[in-house]
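BUG: 3D viewer hangs when loading the predicted structure for this chain

Environment: internal workstation, default settings.
Expected: structure renders.
Actual: progress bar stalls at 90%.

Input used:
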Amino acid sequence: MSSILNQLGPKYFALEAARVDASPTEVIITNDEGNTYYIVTPDVLTEELLELGYKKVEGEE
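Structure tokens produced before the viewer hung:
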């Protein structure tokens, strides 16, 4: 699990803060119904993260 946390990077507690820091090519995800957010690149949003309950909030389509 620690390798997953390393891929996620900093934790954001507000979606607006994550939006400010995310580039247009990055994706914002959450795994706890919007209490915390992470910014990842599309290649990091793998099936493994999805299986762990992470969901895409917004980002590149």
